[in-house]
TrEMBL record:
It comes from Nakamurella multipartita (strain ATCC 700099 / DSM 44233 / CIP 104796 / JCM 9543 / NBRC 105858 / Y-104) (Microsphaera multipartita). It comes from the Bacteria. Pfam families: Bac_luciferase. This is Luciferase-like domain-containing protein. SUPFAM superfamilies: Bacterial luciferase-like. One of its GO terms (cellular component) is cytosol. Residues 17-112 form the Luciferase-like domain. One of its GO terms (molecular function) is oxidoreductase activity, acting on paired donors, with incorporation or reduction of molecular oxygen. NCBIfam families: F420_MSMEG_4141.
Length: 279
């Protein structure tokens, strides 16, 4: 499945068919639909129907909210209708928001076992992964890993764990604004939300960030690393830094003021990267 080197991550409630068509026109290789799409995978079927070639990925289905049997049924339905264009992303979610959360590693293994039994090919699924055990599992049992809320430093670590073969497709937040204070004001609410999740905090500390960096809404340095801001060239460099660190693909999540349009930033970055010219 060809997802290219650059993709777009977008919240399931903030992506439209028209935006998907434009993202495809710009030359991005995949759209990752985030915030735990439900069992019907809405709006992924609508996005697939509205586009022609771009891969649409679930980024990711929460294993606690959607059982493996339901996920497998959704995979087979979409894979049959749009062959080679749907990538099933799954993940364990967060103990803070998942009822009954326990034995996360064992739950992941069991879920992947069920996907195997249901005939979902490993090559067309990816696993949300941060720490070494789950990264290794992603490389062994799926096409690869989809880390979220990370920096190029983590990408370098993840590649060292995965080795040369498996897919590594991290997410990177970007803000098209050269004013640092204004850009951080846009990014901070999102960063603060994820800093309330212990697995993300532990991962950042493993990556070398301090207790002070991850406290509250995050230090300026951490916010700037998790949500790169600046002009189009700076944003493009922030994405490419993941590729330089060992990623195969990086998906850009545009942060804007409330209700803002992500397309101007995606258009500017695509031009800087030469995506349109490359198709």
């Amino acid at each position: 499945m060809d997802i290219g080197r650059y993709g777009v991550w977008r919240h399931k409630d903030r992506i439209t068919a028209a935006q998907a068509r434009r993202i495809e026109e710009l030359g991005y290789g995949a759209i990752w639909v985030g915030a735990s799409p439900a069992g019907d995978l809405s709006p992924i079927p609508e996005l697939l129907a509205a586009t022609e070639r771009i891969v649409i990925a679930s980024g990711v289905i929460n294993m606690w909210a959607t059982g493996a049997e339901v996920a497998a049924q959704a995979y087979h339905r979409l894979a049959a209708e749009y062959p080679g264009r749907f990538l099933l992303g799954v993940g364990i979610g967060h103990r803070e928001t998942s009822a009954g959360y326990q034995s996360p590693y064992a739950t992941i293994v069991d879920y992947l076992d069920q996907l195997d039994a249901a005939g979902v090919p490993a090559a067309e699924r990816v696993l949300a992964a941060l720490g070494p055990r789950v990264l290794r599992l992603a490389g062994e049992r799926t096409a690869g890993a989809h880390p979220y809320f990370t920096t190029p430093g983590h990408t370098r670590f993840a590649r060292s764990v995965l080795g040369a073969g498996p897919l590594l497709a991290p997410e990177q937040k970007i803000v098209l604004d050269t004013d640092g204070a204004r850009a951080r004001a846009i990014a901070r609410p999102t960063v603060e939300y994820y800093l309330s999740r212990v697995n993300y905090v532990n991962n950042l500390k493993r990556d070398g960030w301090t207790d002070e960096d991850v406290a509250g809404s995050g230090s300026d340095a951490l916010v700037d690393a998790l949500a790169v801001h600046g002009d189009a060239a700076t944003l493009a460099a922030g994405l490419t830094a993941h590729l330089d660190a060992g990623a195969d693909h990086v998906c850009a999540q545009v942060l804007t003021e409330a209700g803002g349009d992500p397309l101007p930033a995606l258009e500017a970055v695509a031009e800087e990267l030469g995506l349109s010219a490359a198709g």
